[in-house]
């Protein structure tokens, strides 16, 4: 929980505390006594609230274990109502200095149960309604973004048959002795076919995505300076998981775009991918030219779009670490439960 959320929760309970003091204050009690009594209630009510919102609701109600949810909900109220009996007795004797006054534990338990139950129900219900409204607004926002992205994709599309016919024509005009150029064109054709025909789905096999990344790296090997050493390892893949298409390529493109050419140290692009136990770890590392300001002329739009896709497609199931200093740029992406 970040600082902003902590401040929000503290502010909420402070307002609730003040509300209970001045609205439900017993006229026969002095203010200090009311402060103490309401604070005790606040502790027990907040304990039930966090127990339900952090554990009981996610583990039982959200999974439709209604009986388990109901039992734990009532059990939490009973436990805190029972705990209030010795607390109430301690406060009466040691803080209020009232000795010899009649003390009925059954009445204390009943009043505590009713009060705690009522306020926990009200606060938890309000929290659930608020979360539902936020979730609905979030879903509507995603649907709008999806519709906009689909429209933009349709506008950007061109005739793929014309494209592939053009590639075949160029391939036929390349001299047969220029084997490297012909192979690069075939790789380009395969990459475009993957983008146009295979990526119009929500998920694709990780093997196909790795093959696309591998083809891109092969294209870049023929373009970049021979002083750059390129290492690519994707052998440690246990199983056949699926992944959102074209999710990894942005980081690879970024590495080749900004790799430096230094005379005093090795120039590297290192890419590795490992998948095991439902967890994918993807790492990209490249050296940079220390004398070039890489922020100039770079909008960072590709990385920003990928971050947004990760938030939408893998909420609470991804971790993206980016280390960017004067000499190196390193990305580590972890995806869970693929």
What is the mean predicted local confidence, pLDDT? Answer: 82
Q: Work out the count of structural domains.
A: 2
Largest sheet: 5 strands, mixed
* Unreliable parts: 27-31
Shape annotation = elongated
Measured on Cα atoms, how large is the radius of gyration? 31 Å
Helix content: 55-70%
What fraction of residues sit in β-strands? 5-15%
Determine the N-to-C terminus distance.
25 Å
Total number of helices: 9
> In sequence order, what are the helices and strands, one letter per element?
HHHHHHEHEEHEEHEE
**Multimeric state of these chains?**
single chain
Structural class: alpha+beta
- By DSSP, the count of extended strands is 7
Strands ordered across the widest β-sheet: 2-4-5-7-6
Summarize the structure.
The protein has 338 residues and is of the alpha+beta class. The chain has helices spanning 3-23, 31-61, 66-95, 105-156, 160-173, 179-198, 206-221, 249-258, 301-313, and strands at 204-205, 228-237, 242-243, 267-276, 279-287, 318-324, 328-336.
Molecular structure report:
With 338 residues, the chain is of the alpha+beta class. It has 2 domains: 150 residues, no CATH class; 138 residues, 2-Layer Sandwich (Heat Shock Protein 90), CATH 3.30.565. It is 61% helix and 14% strand. Strands 2-4-5-7-6 form a 5-stranded mixed sheet, with helices on one face. A two-stranded antiparallel ribbon has the order 1-3. β6 and β7 form a beta hairpin. The chain is elongated and about 105 Å long. The protein starts with a helix and ends with a strand.
